[in-house]
Design a protein that fits this description.
This protein has 375 residues and is an alpha/beta fold. The protein has 2 domains: 164 residues, Rossmann fold, CATH 3.40.50.1400; 150 residues, Rossmann fold (3-Layer(aba) Sandwich). It is built from 12 helices and 8 strands. A 4-stranded parallel beta sheet has the order 2-1-3-4, sandwiched between helices. Strands 6-5-7-8 form a 4-stranded parallel beta sheet, with helices on both faces. Strand 7, helix 11 and strand 8 form a beta-alpha-beta unit. The longest helix is centred in the middle third of the chain and has 22 residues. The chain is globular. The mean pLDDT is 96. The site of coproporphyrin III has 26 residues, from helix 1, helix 2, helix 5 and helix 11. The site of fe (ii) ion (FE2) has 6 residues, from helix 5. Pathway: Porphyrin-containing compound metabolism; protoheme biosynthesis. Involved in coproporphyrin-dependent heme b biosynthesis. Catalyzes the insertion of ferrous iron into coproporphyrin III to form Fe-coproporphyrin III. It catalyses: Fe-coproporphyrin III + 2 H(+) = coproporphyrin III + Fe(2+). It is found in: Cytoplasm. It is an enzyme of class 4 (lyase).
Length: 375
């Protein structure tokens, strides 16, 4: 037996997230960070700013990440793993580059990244890898050591991510008035993205036919729907729908929108709908505003009872899944063949994004993938 820790060769875990404003003065600079060079119409920005101001200028995402950090540290320590966990964001403090400066100052050189996005897409995967490359370039320019950075495989179909959503769906069904419960439909929701980005999501062999982004969400939706049917004995209609569209109206994005979907199923006689935000790891502003505010208002207008399933957030089963994924990847890096848990039909995702995975509209360096300019 060697005396290497089970997480070797990694010496740090990085929680990489989107970031969000923490007060009214943060909202405009945050939105400027998010939208720099992305061609989002001014009107849309004003509208999204209004969503944040409705909640005092505070996004729920940072507190969700602080709680996730707490349970991850507890989970790792409880398993006897001495692996420090750092937190850095794309768009708000703590900024990723500052976090990596601290991480190398603390002596770490081999980092494994957990992004708060479970699926393949440019926005949810490659853009984070570009952020990592930018941060590594900044460290290099400052003459600091450049750590080697890897990213965990997509965890959309890991049981520690899916099972909490099954329980959350059952709990949301229970929250509906009893007389509409048996007939309630399930609406699985995720962030809409441009159809062009969806079609090229994932590795090249998945491109076309909606790409990996839609296929992965459909797989999770089907797994949850089947588990709920097994648990309740009721086979209910379900659909994958979208929310939070931005961008110019003439550019096609994934549809239908959740609000249009509520109207459609209401018209077809659905007695109630449970909305299950499978595309979001925790309660982001998209969940609080686009679902809990806008879609709930739409349902009220229709007289359609709705309930919203909780997001995974800091569920201890998710923290345990992250520990398993860390140990799995560490073993693979050591040349072992670890067991890889996955539910559904797609199987475990790749460890290393191949060249051409989730391409950007204009190519830029991205770390933690086969095309990384860093080792
Ligand atoms: C797939 C996806 C995820 C899920 C994966 C993941 O989690 O990473 C996600 C997450 C998030 N998106 C967020 C916020 C925003 N996203 C925007 C804009 C955009 N999102 C896109 C996609 C996604 N976004 C896209 C294609 C755009 C268009 C512009 C572009 O191509 O980049 C804009 C600009 C205004 C607007 O148009 O809405 C904002 C403010 C927050 C923080 C919320 C909070 O504060 O709680 C989070 C977690
Ligand atoms: Fe990718």
């Amino acid at each position: 037996m060697s005396d290497q820790p089970a997480h070797a060769p990694y010496d740090a875990l990085l929680l990489l997230s989107f970031g969000g404003p923490e007060g009214p003065d943060d909202v405009v600079p945050f939105l400027e960070n998010v939208t720099r060079g992305r061609g989002i119409p001014r009107e849309r920005l004003k509208e999204v700013g209004r969503h944040y101001f409705l909640f005092g200028g505070v996004s729920p995402i940072n507190d969700q990440n602080r709680e996730l950090l707490r349970v991850l540290r507890e989970e790792l320590a409880g398993a006897g793993l001495d692996l420090p966990v750092y937190w850095g964001n794309r768009n708000w403090t703590p900024y990723l580059t500052d976090t990596l400066r601290q991480l190398v100052a603390d002596g770490h050189r081999r980092v494994l990244t957990l992004a708060t996005s479970a699926y393949a897409s440019y926005s949810g995967c490659r853009q984070y890898r570009e952020n990592l490359a930018d941060a590594l370039a900044a460290l290099e320019a400052e003459g600091l050591p450049v750590p080697r950075v890897d990213k965990l495989r997509h965890y959309f179909n890991h049981p520690g991510f899916v099972r909490p959503m099954v329980d959350a769906t059952l709990a949301a069904l229970d929250a509906l008035p009893e007389e509409v419960r048996a007939g309630a439909h399930l609406a699985f929701t995720t962030h809409s993205i441009p159809t062009a980005a969806a079609d090229t999501s994932g590795p090249a062999e998945d491109h076309g036919d909606g790409g990996a982004y839609v296929a992965q969400h459909l797989d999770v939706a089907r797994t949850i729907a089947e588990a709920v049917r097994a648990e309740t004995g009721t086979d209910r209609p379900w659909e994958l729908v979208y929310q939070s569209r931005s961008g110019a109206p003439h550019i096609p994005w994934l549809e239908p929108d959740i609000c249009d979907h509520l109207e459609a199923v209401h018209g077809e006689g659905a007695p109630a709908v449970v909305m299950v935000p499978i595309g979001f790891v925790s309660d982001h502003m998209e969940v609080k505003y686009d679902l809990d505010t806008e879609a709930v208002a739409k349902a009220a207008e229709l007289g359609l009872p709705v309930a919203r399933a909780a997001t995974v957030g800091a569920d201890p089963r998710f923290a345990a899944a992250v520990r398993e994924l860390v140990l799995e990847r560490a073993a693979a890096e050591r040349g072992e063949r670890p067991e890889r848990c996955a539910l559904g039909a797609l199987g475990p995702s790749h460890d290393l994004c191949p060249v051409g995975c989730c391409p950007a509209r204009s190519p830029r360096p991205a770390a933690a993938g086969a095309d990384s300019p860093y080792a």
